[in-house]
Amino acid sequence: MATYNKMGKNIRRREIISPEHQGIHLIFIGFGFKLSTIKPLRSVFITSILLFVLLPLGALDIPELTAPVTDLAEILADTEEEQLNTLLLKFREETSNQFALLTIPSLQGENLEAYSIRVASAWQLGERDQDNGLLLLVALRDRKLRIEVGYGLEGDLTDLFCGRVIDNIITPHFKNQEFYLGILAGLSALVQQTGYEFDSAVLPQELEQGLEAAPPDIPFGLMRPPRFMIFIWLYPLIVLELLFGFLLGSGKAYKAFFKNNFAAYDQAKKKIPDLRWDLFNLWVKKTGPTLNSVTGIGYVLGAFPIIPALMIVRLAPVALAIPLIYLFSIFLLPRMFRVRKLPYFLSYGKIENNFQKFKTFLETVPSEEERNQMGKLYLSGYTNIAMMKLVIKSKGHWDEDYFHRVRYSAGSSSGSSSSGSSFSGGGGSFGGGGASGGW
Fold it and tell me: Is the per-residue pLDDT at 305 higher than 90?
């Protein structure tokens, strides 16, 4: 059997100092701090040294990695172990993914997850630049097992998937003392999830029967979604991001165009010869907040598709296009967007036309004093002609105090009837994931 050399990057790299070196290291630290001169702490120091030196001596040993299968619990026949080694060696040659199996008689009181991490770190499963290793650990007397997954395979072999492989595939066989079939069926499901299948045509008949005996199906929720489902999920998100991105980018472009060309009266006067000072102030007062609202809405709406996109980025890396579109809309699109003039609803022409309609309305007001009050109110930014008409209809004449009461009551009623909600999401980092189980 070919030697199975360990190579590549470990799943979770940790420096493990041997017990002898730990003791020497601590003694040197002690001399460095001259603890011999601190008599009250000497006993504490000596006790600490003994704890740090003696506790690791009781830790479970890590066997040397010489083949894909290391069966210390002796639950596999020689032929079964050889067949599994052949399958996993061929799997590594064709995919570079490195899967290994370790069975031990007992954990001897050590934590299952901690020991599996120590083994994976010492064995350094997977290629250095891909982290595509996996460890299947079986503790016989403890009736526990764990699948430890490298960073590079977490997109395919999620914690949920590994957990259900243990519960639905491996454990049923282990309960019947069918260790070989359980291991073979579990590894077959894990390998298949990465896009590879064991070639049953070249396997001995006994191994083919083992594959047939393994539970063939995994629940639908564990399988990688078909490409068309990913496309159906991503397509509306990308379309929405493009629309919101265009809103954001164009809003920023129009905002910059307005600021550079019409922010100052003298500057705007060169482009609009018949510009009126009072209407210019009204235009700036209306257009500035409108542009701020458009860009603000673009920022908020553009951020919404990013959250569901990041949820599936491991299944479909193309989902990264959505946050990239968002960033493009913020930084690049406003510079690429060629603005030659403002749209009508933002233009000075609309302000001027609305003012002409207001002047026509004022002709129906008999009192000159009321017309002057309404004119000042309009030019100060209160341009709601419909509400002015409502005041005159209700009171029979213009009443500015009543106008403000109506306006404030309308605003407060609409505000009190609305409700807000907060949506927040959490985040986390994933690495060296996996799942544990027992039988």
Answer: yes
